[in-house]
TrEMBL record, chain A:
Keywords: Cytoplasm, mRNA processing, mRNA splicing, Nucleus, Phosphoprotein. Residues 70-164 form the AD domain. GO terms for biological process: spliceosomal complex assembly; spliceosomal snRNP assembly. Part of the core SMN complex that contains SMN1, GEMIN2/SIP1, DDX20/GEMIN3, GEMIN4, GEMIN5, GEMIN6, GEMIN7, GEMIN8 and STRAP/UNRIP. Part of the SMN-Sm complex that contains SMN1, GEMIN2/SIP1, DDX20/GEMIN3, GEMIN4, GEMIN5, GEMIN6, GEMIN7, GEMIN8, STRAP/UNRIP and the Sm proteins SNRPB, SNRPD1, SNRPD2, SNRPD3, SNRPE, SNRPF and SNRPG. Interacts with GEMIN7; the interaction is direct. Interacts with GEMIN8; the interaction is direct. Interacts with SNRPB, SNRPD2, SNRPD3 and SNRPE; the interaction is direct. Pfam families: Gemin6 (PF06372), Gemin6_C (PF20417). Its main location: cytoplasm. The gene is gemin6. CDD domains: Gemin6 (cd11676). InterPro entries: AD, Gemin6, Gemin6_C, Gemin6_Sm-like_dom. This is Gem-associated protein 6. Gene3D superfamilies: 2.30.30.100. It is found in: Cytoplasm; Nucleus, Gem; Nucleus, Nucleoplasm. GO terms for cellular component: Gemini of Cajal bodies; SMN complex.
From TrEMBL, chain B:
GO terms for cellular component: SMN-Sm protein complex. PANTHER family: GEM-ASSOCIATED PROTEIN 7. Residues 1-25 form the SUZ-C domain. This is SUZ-C domain-containing protein. Pfam families: Gemin7. One of its GO terms (biological process) is spliceosomal snRNP assembly. It comes from the Eukaryota. InterPro entries: SMN_gemin7, SUZ-C. Residues 1-21 are annotated as: Disordered. Gene3D superfamilies: 2.30.30.100. The gene is gemin7.
Length: 164, 125
């Protein structure tokens, strides 16, 4: 697969996720680490390595420089857990359902006060049919394909967090 | 006689419909044509691929977000190693914005680094 890493495509890249890989890049550099993700736009790899002192280091290898990728190890349960908690959203809601519904109601009332059409859909909030807010309902939990609406709603929610 | 000066046009930026990059733009063709393989898949296969793509991209963006304001070390072509504070990347990952770039001749307060010149960069936490 010499030089063809960036042409593999998302489905093939997914097969390398959460595995320890050795990446050769540039003229004579090699990098080792657990593959967290591959950017589908630039084919860049994100590698995470756990140091002996307990810290983690994150490395991004640019897709255009990649020469070769080989799998060294599969991750066991412990490593998988560590990978998930160390990199990806450390604040995946550990709040109890009561607190969550209180926050959801708070955000809903705040948005309505600002004349934003918002409705409840299960445990999500839906704004004007184009934006969803998932638990725990902070600015980072908004999801929309319209970046102007996304920016406005995020700012509004940020204002609410600043006020309370 | 004065010779006419040619007009320098800047490359077209990302289109406003949040697609991020226009595969037909001169900038895209010049800089990252081989990076996106458009698959010939259709139907369920395409949907699976698009899902994988969105999951990968979201994780990548979250990783970039987590690097914001952290010290990074860039490994660049020609055995150049520089340190800087990571700021952001543009939507098609062509440039990185950094602060306090420690170059061999001094510290540059703000800088843009072309991603084509970079092999890899590291953040220690």
């Amino acid at each position: 697969m010499q030089g063809s890493w960036s042409l593999l495509g998302p489905l093939s890249w997914t097969g390398y996720i959460n595995k320890q890989v050795n990446v050769t890049a540039g003229t004579d550099e090699s990098h080792q680490g657990w593959l967290v993700t591959v950017d589908p736009v630039s084919a860049s790899l994100v590698l995470v390595d756990f140091r002996e002192d307990g810290g983690t280091s994150m490395e991004v290898v640019m897709g255009h420089a990649v020469e070769n990728v080989t799998v060294l190890h599969e991750a066991d349960e412990v490593t998988l857990d560590r990978l998930r908690t160390s990199v990806l959203s450390p604040a995946t809601c550990s709040l109890d359902p009561e607190e969550l519904s209180r926050r959801r109601a708070g955000v809903q009332i705040w948005l309505q006060k600002n004349r934003v059409p918002v409705e409840e859909e299960g445990d999500q909030l839906r704004v004007a049919g184009v934006l969803t807010i998932t638990a725990p309902y902070g600015p980072e939990d908004c999801c929309s394909s319209n970046q102007i609406i996304l920016d406005r709603i995020q700012r509004l929610i940020q204002l609410q967090t600043d006020h309370s | 006689m004065a010779t006419p000066v040619s007009v320098l046009r800047l490359p077209k930026g990302p289109d406003p419909n949040s697609r991020g990059f226009d595969p037909k733009s001169a900038r895209f063709i010049a800089l990252c044509r081989p990076s996106i393989a458009t698959s010939a898949a259709s139907g369920a296969e395409l949907q699976r691929e698009q899902h994988a793509r969105s999951v990968l991209r979201e994780t990548f963006l979250r990783c970039l977000l987590s690097m914001n304001n952290k010290k990074v070390r860039f490994h660049m072509h020609g055995k150049v190693k520089v340190e800087a504070t990571f700021g952001a990347s543009d939507i098609d990952v062509l440039n990185f914005q950094v602060s306090d770039l420690h170059t061999p001749i001094g510290v540059q307060k703000e800088a843009l680094i072309r991603s084509q010149d970079v092999i890899s960069f590291t953040v220690d936490e």
